[in-house]
Design brief:
By secondary structure, the chain is an alpha/beta fold. It has one domain: Maf protein (Alpha-Beta Complex). The chain has a five-stranded mixed sheet, with helices on both faces. Helix 1 runs parallel beside helix 6. The chain starts with a helix and ends with a helix.
């Protein structure tokens, strides 16, 4: 899939996610690390998105995750920034610190460096929180086809996760 096709697919998926938010009469928020705001950008590229998008938290550093989302230092120390536990706390923290009814969180290793045997480049943890529901997390390991590819696939996967949660 070319970068143009991924970008177009991202617009389509973002639009479907926002339509689902509109049907449920809820706002969306994001808590993003490895994507650096690409998920919220995909949503806000859609005309009329202001009626379905509340905010995006760009929490690239551990300090930002703690300050903006309430991720606990103990979680980061015990499990690392790229972990199920951190993704869950990011999603929950975005829900608590926004007016959103659904939040999408991502934390991962987009490369080209930073990977290890147990946390390879391409590893991304996704968190999803919704008002009145248990917060969930999913793990994906994307092929290491470069930083842009991993980040774009992360955007698509997060938005699809949101659509599935709103079905």
């Amino acid at each position: 899939m070319s970068e143009t096709e991924i970008a177009e697919d991202g617009r389509v998926i973002a639009n479907l996610f926002l339509q689902a938010c509109h049907r449920h009469k809820i706002l969306a928020a994001t808590a993003e690390s490895c994507t650096g705001g690409l998920i919220i950008a995909a949503m806000t590229d859609i005309p009329g998105s202001s009626s379905m998008v509340d905010r995006g938290f760009i929490t690239y550093s551990n300090e930002a995750k703690m300050d903006m989302l309430g991720v606990r230092r103990e979680t980061l120390d015990a499990h690392g920034a790229v972990s199920r536990e951190t993704a869950l706390e990011m999603a929950s923290g975005a829900l608590v610190n926004s007016r959103a009814g659904i939040t999408l969180a991502v934390t991962g290793i987009a490369g080209p460096d930073g990977g290890s045997a147990d946390k390879p480049v391409g590893l991304v943890w996704f968190g999803l929180a919704m008002t009145g529901r248990e917060t969930i997390a999913q793990k994906h390991i994307f092929d290491d086809r470069g930083r842009d590819y991993i980040r774009r696939q992360t955007v698509l996967t997060a938005l699809k996760m949101g659509i599935d949660a709103l079905k």
